Amino acid sequence: MMRRYDTPYMADWFAISLRWIMLVGVTVSLGLGGKLELSISWPLGIMIAWNLAMTALASLNVRMRFHRRINILVDLLLAGAFFWVQGGSHGPAFWVGLLPILTGSIFFEFLGGLITALLFSGLVIYMGMKVQDELSLAITVSVTLVVLSVVFGFLGRRIMIHMRRNRSLYFDTEEKRRSIQNERMRAIYELTSALSSTLSYKRVLESALDMSAAALNPDPEQLVSDPLVGVVMLFNGGKLRIGSARRFTTADMRVTFDAAEGILKKALDEGEPILFKDIGYDPELGRVVALRTCTSGYCFPLRSGFNVYGALLFAHPDPDYFNSERQSLLDIIGRQAVIAIQNARLYQDLVEEKERMVEVHEEARKKLARDLHDGPTQSVAAMAMRLNIAKRMMTKDVNAASEEITKLEELAHRTTKEIRHMLFTLRPLILESQGLTAAVQAMSDKMLETYSQKVTVAIDERVTSQLEMGKQGVIFYIIEEAVNNARKHAAAETIAVRLRQVEVGIALLEIVDNGVGFDIKAMAQSYDQRANSSLGMINLRERAELVNGLFQMDSALGKGTKVQVYIPLTEDAADRLHHARSR
User: Model pTM?
Assistant: First the structure.
């Protein structure tokens, strides 16, 4: 019955090695004595085959049941057979009895060597009694073997004590190494859990630094005293600013970096981690007091695709601190931090978008209230007043009362048109059924019918065919907002709406009027103080962002106004459009 073990038994290898030495010695003795014949050397061949089998088992960390006892017994039988066939004490290799004695001394120390020596001595004396004048030699050989068994037993005990001590140290070291590895894996797991469970920037940065330090130094005692410096830097306003740090001074926390040269620029440009030395000579990092005592560092860029968030940097006074294992750990932590920062930013964007949508809906409600107050409400009030006048005139001047009722009818028709126009702009059903071109043309017709405002429309159907319905709705409201603003404030004779493709994947929406125009800079400076204003440029810009577009406005006093929105039709076009703008 065989059993496999995780680690090798050194006693087995020691016994195998001594057995090979003994077999080589026996072979040489036979060769020198000219006795290397099959009739007397066949046990030697069996011993060699046996030792080869034990070598194979030891290399596989496999042991038999009663492994040590079987080894001693086989060695004793084969050595006895060889001693017998090669002539006993007068043979060229009479000392072959040392083989089982050595095996017994290794496996069972003093007692094993002594018992094996006594058993083999019994064979030696038995053969000596059968041969005349050989008993005295047999007794001498037996006594020698017993004495040697005592010596070998003592040596075997010392060797086994030493081997057990080394094995214990090995297992202690291995256990400590496994414990450290488990602590690192636990730290990485906790980091992953912490980063995936929080959507707060501050908690993400704090967790990244704390878990990094714990992963690099799993031993709590070393963690407290380790002079490891860590910092997370994030871009804000075009500069790298300290988001969170360990062992930074108060002055260091206020330092900002342009990332225009040195280690930071190289890491962010290449998008790969950098192991570096001599931090004090870096043109940007050299300004940080906490880094001046450090001789080695590791910088991991926090970026995903074209999005660059910042950098994760660690430094240490030990020049060999950041070995390959620690670098791999920091790479894992850095990638997890990037994912967590992306999630936190997406969540923050969602929160801001939610707040913005609340503001948009609130402003739309206010706008509707103002439009109702300025339009239909005033008209209804005027109708009530005219009805009262007509009622009084009925008894005095019938003709005048008839004229007043005619004017009242015209006012009612005009009010109805205004209300229908407002309902149309709130939810243009024609947009859902017939598309953007029909909806804008309907809006143009209602502008002319309701307000006598001329609006020309030129929309390329090849562009609208590439726009999904959601984008068409946003574009319609951009057009409606810009046209309505021009009608109210520009006093323009004509407002032109154009949508065309200017290059592959990019469309251009233009709303141009020939009205009075305005000073954009002056208006922007006083925009927050303007009472009862609509969303204006801010609303147009935000709606342009909803279609991933770029908003531009050009106006001057007396020269009209031009609103332009560049709209990407594909994701590749969006990348080209926004990268071209950033350059």
Answer: 0.42
